[in-house]
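Mods, move this if it's the wrong board.
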Amino acid sequence: MLLLQKPQLSRFSPCTYLPDRRCRFEYFFAIDLGARDLEDLLCSGWRKFGEYYFRPNCGDCRSCVPLRIIVPEFRPSKGQRRVMRSCADIRVRFVEPDYRDEIFEIYRDHSLHRFGKESDPDEFIAAFYTRSCPSIQSEYYLDEELIAVGFIDVGSEGMSSVYFVYKTAYDAYRLGTYSVIKEVEHAASCGLKYYYLGYFIEDNRSMAYKWHFHPHETYDWTAGRWIREGKESVE
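Not the wrong board. Structure tokens:
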């Protein structure tokens, strides 16, 4: 790993997930991470976009909880199996990162209609196609039309979902849930133990879906270890 900037703290700013809170991040910039380097960071609650690595450091607030699925033991729930049936005609492939204008257009559509945000192509490329660690992308096709793309980092023991976008015209397919299922399956085919789903916030409804993938573990910021749901600490 080549560290471009030592870890430092951002200033406090309004939290985008919990409106009555303020947030702050510990962050650094780095390139040339190997799979083991990345795994060590994921295991300590770090996330990344491009060369920017970050984790929340918000004083007494510990609401952003890293969550990872235990890949070899994952079994889809009844509701998740319904999603799989509804998406049976969707073809998924996993490839090396490959920027195309059509992918940015999916991102632009997703950002605009889901979050009301305009998108800049240079920022998109910096966040998802500046390759600082091992990574792949997932592509979802319906009748040969590309309808969704996932950006995935690959550690020595797990895969990490960086971001997932889809054409909002296909919202009824519940592609976000389907992507987790297919990417966990791919992680299993690669012999990996974990699928990192980013941060879970109990009081944020948009993140509620993450809790319904079982079995999973959450990271205890205070103790610095992962805890399996309903069990004692595992690390």
